[in-house]
Amino acid sequence: FNCQLVAYLDILSSIDPARAFPAISIASSPAEMERIAAALGRVSRSPDAARCIRRHLVPLAVPLDAALLDSDPPRITAMIDVSDGLAKDLSTLCAESGVGALVREEALPIPGALGELCGLEGAALIDFALSSGEEYVPLAAVTPEAARMLGAVGSADRGGGAAVIGTIVPAAEGITLVGRDGKRRTMPALGYEHMF
Asked: What global pTM score does this model have?
């Protein structure tokens, strides 16, 4: 399992606008969403907070270099978009691929303003970040070479296009979250569950 788990730095920039701005209702048209996002960008908050709000209201696709997708042997071995929450979508990626994952909490790309906007900190902020959805950015199992091509770094706060948040492990090891204190726990079963 020589694969690293890579998440884009905006992967956890989604917020619940109702908690941050109770007076705002999200419109159904893209034009209205752009108008709201522009207005929120002028709100007297930090630039990081405004970016979080804009990314939630108007998610943008992340283009990937075709060289990553068209290689032999493959540089990307599994990929999913994070739309139902990182924990849920990672669980899906692992189940479909027959693998497990080891995720480092300190590597999760959580914007500094997220806790401020949602009024959360510590374990509650981590659980929120793992369960939030609608980021629509890639979560991928990639070779070390692909991680370098993506600009992935080992820590979410050092910049780059993506962050290495963990590694792929045998399925028998399950999906584990390693806390900042080094303690391991089973990845919580968080995220949006579609009911059909």
From this structure: 0.75
